[in-house]
TrEMBL record:
<dbReference type="GO" id="GO:0008270">
    <property type="term" value="F:zinc ion binding"/>
</dbReference>
<keyword id="KW-0175">Coiled coil</keyword>
<keyword id="KW-0833">Ubl conjugation pathway</keyword>
<dbReference type="InterPro" id="IPR027370">
    <property type="entry name" value="Znf-RING_euk"/>
</dbReference>
<feature type="domain" description="RING-type">
    <location>
        <begin position="23"/>
        <end position="79"/>
    </location>
</feature>
<dbReference type="InterPro" id="IPR017907">
    <property type="entry name" value="Znf_RING_CS"/>
</dbReference>
<dbReference type="Pfam" id="PF13445">
    <property type="entry name" value="zf-RING_UBOX"/>
</dbReference>
<dbReference type="InterPro" id="IPR013083">
    <property type="entry name" value="Znf_RING/FYVE/PHD"/>
</dbReference>
<dbReference type="InterPro" id="IPR001841">
    <property type="entry name" value="Znf_RING"/>
</dbReference>
<dbReference type="InterPro" id="IPR000315">
    <property type="entry name" value="Znf_B-box"/>
</dbReference>
<keyword id="KW-0863">Zinc-finger</keyword>
<feature type="domain" description="B box-type">
    <location>
        <begin position="117"/>
        <end position="159"/>
    </location>
</feature>
<protein>
    <submittedName>
        <fullName>Tripartite motif containing 63</fullName>
    </submittedName>
</protein>
<dbReference type="Pfam" id="PF00643">
    <property type="entry name" value="zf-B_box"/>
</dbReference>
<feature type="coiled-coil region">
    <location>
        <begin position="188"/>
        <end position="266"/>
    </location>
</feature>
<dbReference type="InterPro" id="IPR050143">
    <property type="entry name" value="TRIM/RBCC"/>
</dbReference>
<dbReference type="GO" id="GO:0030018">
    <property type="term" value="C:Z disc"/>
</dbReference>
Length: 329
């Protein structure tokens, strides 16, 4: 707080000094002890403690126990947040310079004569100072108004007592409002933290869910490859067997075709002797070739692959039923 520059700029140094010594909470001159915050703003320790207690209702201490750790305090001037230790406001440093300035200021004020016109005057009685407060009409007035004027039947009280009472009430309202603002700010901070944690937790569970489904995809792909390989192996074995039979039958067919051609040529032979020389052997070969037609065959339904069919409906139902918090074991 640069008191010197502030005083030089103002035409009335004492009046400007008084403004610099006003507590932002109670709006009165600082009451000792005066504490200074890390943001360099000053407060009456009592006012600061009232706000701190309102913002941290479960913090007591000063031998009233309950204080496990410190709490949070927000400067009413700049809203800077201060983290208190277990001593609370009593752990803040006292501003002895400001306290000394207050003492000097009060001594200076007490030695100065009261300036004319510094006290408001009654509108009805221009020579009378306003020195009492009408409780009935709730307005400040003068003694003459009470004795001879409009407030004869009203209840009045000393101006200073009402002044102090209303200042105290206003200070309490300010403290309540500041404390309420601190609580609201705390709630906002907590909600913002909740948003951040919610987003982080959502990201983590999404990643975990994706990993589990990727693992399922991998298992399905592996099983699919395994089953397709078994079908392919069975297909190759059957095709190999069928192709071998085809080759055997083709060889038998070629042999039979040649025998037929040879037999037809023998039938065209005009000479009986020549025909008889080869006929016997030829007939024997044809008979043997006819017996050889009984080669291997495929069984009925040999080409059927239905036994590789899968019934996955129950697994599909299980997959459709996948949901959070369900045990599938």
């Amino acid at each position: 707080m640069d008191y010197k520059s502030s005083l030089i700029q103002d035409g009335n140094p004492m009046e400007n000094l008084e403004k610099q010594l006003i507590c932002p909470i109670c709006l009165e001159m600082f009451t000792k002890p005066v504490v200074i915050l890390p943001c360099q703003h000053n407060l009456c320790r009592k006012c600061a403690n009232d706000i701190f207690q309102a913002a941290n209702p479960y913090w007591t201490n000063r031998s009233g126990s309950v204080s496990v750790s410190g709490g949070r305090f927000r400067c009413p001037s700049c809203r800077h947040e201060v983290i208190m230790d277990r001593h609370g406001v009593y752990g803040l440093q006292r501003n002895l310079l400001v306290e000394n300035i207050i003492d000097i200021y009060k001594q200076e004020c007490s030695s100065r004569p009261l300036q004319k016109g510094s006290h408001p005057m009654c509108k009805e009685h221009e020579d009378e100072k306003i020195n009492i407060y009408c409780l009935t009409c709730e307005v400040p007035t003068c003694s003459m108004c009470k004795v001879f004027g409009a407030h004869q039947a009203c209840e009045v009280a000393p101006l200073q007592s009402v002044f102090q009472g209303q200042k105290t009430e206003l200070s309490n309202c300010i403290s309540m409002l500041v404390a309420g603002n601190d609580r609201v700010q705390t709630i906002i901070t907590q909600l913002e933290d909740s948003c951040r944690v919610t987003k982080e937790n959502s990201r983590q569970v999404k990643e975990e869910l994706s990993r589990k489904f990727d693992a399922l995809y991998a298992i399905l792909d592996e099983k699919k490859s395994e089953l397709l390989q078994r079908i392919t192996q069975e297909q190759e074995e059957k095709l190999s067997f069928i192709e071998a039979l085809i080759q055997q039958y083709r060889e038998q067919l070629d042999k039979s075709t040649k025998l037929v051609e040879t037999a037809i040529q023998s039938l065209d032979e005009p000479g009986g002797a020549i025909f008889l020389l080869s006929a016997k052997k030829l007939i024997k070969s044809i008979v043997e070739a006819s017996k050889g037609c009984q080669l291997g065959k495929t069984e009925q339904g040999f080409e059927n692959m239905d036994y590789f069919t899968l019934d996955l409906e129950h697994i599909a139902d299980t997959l459709r039923a996948i949901d959070f918090g369900t045990d599938y074991l």
